[in-house]
What does this fold into?
Amino acid sequence: MAKKTSAKVAKKAAAKRGAAKPTLLSGGNPQIAKGDGDAPVQAYIAAMPGWKRDIGQQLDALVVHTVPGVRKAVKWNSPFYGAPDQDGWFLSYHCFAKYVKVTFFRGTSLRPIPSGESKQKGVRYLDIHEGALNEAQFVNWVQQASRLPGERL
It folds into this structure.
């Protein structure tokens, strides 16, 4: 009888751990374990709070549609996207309290240049506030960025 009870307890504890919500870091950024592939990226998107989840789903769908075979990973609690035939990464994003920040690692090579300046040479940012994504411009930048050499991190 003790074996059945301990098995039940272990099963309930495992189910509870699986259903646990991810921790949100400062600004509401999900804390997701690093990993390669689509699964960790989808876990990150699922954990994005509120309207930001819709932005995450939209960004992911646009990148996947624009760059067939795109490589994905989660590093430093942010999704990363890389061209299928290159090393390195061309884009990442991260949740902040009032917006989602998209990082174009070779952003100064894009035309027009994304408006968000960086202290890092070549990097440019796009801050997306609720309901404010210009899909056509984003897709254009993704097309350009995916053809540039990826950033090795």
The radius of gyration is 18 Å.
